[in-house]
Amino acid sequence: MDKAYFSSGDIIADRRADYARMLADGGDYAAAAELMAQALDMAPDWAAGWDLLGTYHERAGQVAAAISAWRRLEALDDEGVFGAQLKLAAHDAGPAGDGTAVSYVEALFDQYAPQFEQSLLGKLGYRVPEILDRMVEEEMARLGVALFDKALDLGCGTGLMGEKLRAKVGFLEGIDISAAMIAETARKGIYDSLQKAELVAALNARRADADLMTAADVLIYCGALPPVLAALVPALKAGGLVAFSLEAHDGDEAVFLRPSLRYAHGVDATRDALVVAGLDILRFETAILRFDRGAPVTGILVVARKPALELTAANDAEAGGDVAA
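The chain above was modelled as a monomer; its predicted structure follows.
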């Protein structure tokens, strides 16, 4: 069930909430918020209702009222399914927390799964799998790689990236936080293996078992990049490639949370994080990833390589020679 439509348990409150949704669908967010507040007078412990009230206030430009609603939501939503902490952080009203907001992201994509492809491809002009696939193909040709033994498609979703990778990979594994997304992609028969797991936890359980990893529009939900790379690099074989996308910003901050509740990463900070993680940057490009409410979303697209064993050994030997000298 859509988390936004959980019943309050009060028929009259539910009816007023339904009218509020109709007003919101028509663009009258101030009136929707007023009616939603009346519904919450009858059902004051209804978490989904406070989430809707905050959203209506926000879209009506009533930010202070939205923050107040989300503070009430935060107190009611013990599991963090509605992302109140993120919503407050995006409006400078609290900390975002560390890493992925697991419960929120899982619930978001469980809800989104049935219409995911229609929305992304039909309405938002989503191009990330296509662009990353082209970049990977070009690097395969340059490096003389005919086929990857094993690839991990992180945040595989409904398999849009996996469809591009399938012919390039002997064994293709998909990992996603959402059971509904896993179910959608399982029907396609793209992957040799599918696992429901949070990305960093899944990577921490592995050691050097993949020669390609992809993350198409996934790390935008993970916050800071260095902890992700710290889990990813040990799970990648020597000489293996990683290809991923981020939303980009031009400021000095390494990462910040947008009102969309997706993280944007600084261009320079991303380059630095890759170098510190020990990866060789093969490709580093910016491009329009998709559109959001009619506005283009600019992103960073990366292909990087974990140094091959031969190169690592040579560097170690050179360093040892310098010390001996």
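The chain has a mean pLDDT of 90.
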